[in-house]
Write a structure and sequence with these properties.
2 helices, OB fold (Dihydrolipoamide Acetyltransferase, E2P), 15% strand, mainly beta, 5-stranded mixed barrel
Length: 202
């Protein structure tokens, strides 16, 4: 029997596919709890969501992931399908997520794992939604890809309508000659008067 080297990378590469069940990371690092297919049971009594290990999320090299620089940590929700690997091939307690997987949900599972197991719902409800998300109308039975990306909806998409309602118009340009003073009262030099071509100057 081969013994564990306890050295990262020498004990094999163990990858997984799983479902996010919790994203309320107490350390605010953007970690999530994932139930992994083949490694975890779907029984919430045998393995509650609270006992699942926290999984770190891999970021692209365009994000430094330090000192608040770059983008926010992650944007996964309960019910998101993910793919990743274990840093500890033997114990399988240190998962890292490398991406998410879209799909076409048929129904929302309740009372078992591999789903949104929250006892209470957010303002948007549970995921996937059986009543439709308020900002897009997305619901069970359609592709996870945005309706805008699929060309199914355009000008009537709720997200676009909301953006247009909140759009600010009539904002003055901060250049001459449109702006003569700032909000602090500092006067700007007014543009020179243009001679009236209808008058004759001698």
């Amino acid at each position: 029997m081969q013994t564990s080297s306890e050295f990262f990378g020498l004990d094999g590469f163990i990858w997984f596919i799983g479902v996010v069940e919790d994203r309320q990371d107490p350390l605010k690092l953007g970690r999530v709890k994932v139930r992994c297919l083949g490694f975890h049971t779907e029984s919430l009594s045998d393995l509650p969501t609270a006992d699942l290990p926290w999984a770190h999320v891999m970021h692209p090299v365009t994000n430094p992931s330090m000192h608040g620089l770059g983008h926010t940590p992650t944007f996964m929700v309960e019910g998101s399908w993910v793919v990743g690997f274990f840093r500890d091939a033997e114990e399988k307690q240190l998962p890292i997520i490398i991406g998410t997987l879209p799909g076409k949900p048929v129904k929302r599972k309740t009372g078992v794992g591999f789903a949104d197991t929250r006892s209470f719902a957010s303002p948007y409800g549970h995921y996937p939604s059986d009543r439709g998300l308020p900002h897009s109308g997305h619901k069970i039975g359609e592709s996870d890809t945005s309706r805008l990306a699929r060309g199914k909806d355009s000008e009537h998409h709720k997200a676009l309508q909301q953006r247009r309602r909140k759009r600010l118009v009539g904002i003055p340009m901060a250049t001459k000659p449109a702006m003569f003073a700032t909000s602090l009262g500092a006067k700007k030099e007014k543009p020179p008067k243009v001679p009236d071509k209808t008058k004759v100057y001698v």
